[in-house]
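User: Hey, my collaborator sent me this sequence without any context and asked if I could get a structure. I don't really work with proteins. Can you help?
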Amino acid sequence: MRFYGIPSEDRVAEIVEMMKEETWIYEDLQEGVRERLSLEKTKEKLMELIRTVKGWKESNKHIPSATTFFFVHTPSDPKAFKVYDLSSLGCSSSLSPARWLIYLEGLEIR
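Assistant: No problem. I've predicted the 3D structure and written it out in structure-token form, which is a compact way to encode the shape of the chain:
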């Protein structure tokens, strides 16, 4: 499954508004949380993550505004999101695992 980085949280919000599918899975891999969510709850969760990332960028001036934390499978028809946290920033040669996964029920994205 190919994911596309979205460096603008405003663009992520536009993609969230396009979501139509009804049942989603939310996972916080750091906290070990996995929930089944309605479309409305999924949109709320993604908007909460957008606010979190915007807060990081505003409070940490060393993070360039175009730093990408959100990745989506097919921006025109979103079926899965990977969201990274601040621990993903650094000088390693590979990207740390995503912190949050949000995907359509029935998909396997790992």
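In plain terms: The first strand starts at residue 4 and ends at 6. You can pass these tokens on to your collaborator as they are.
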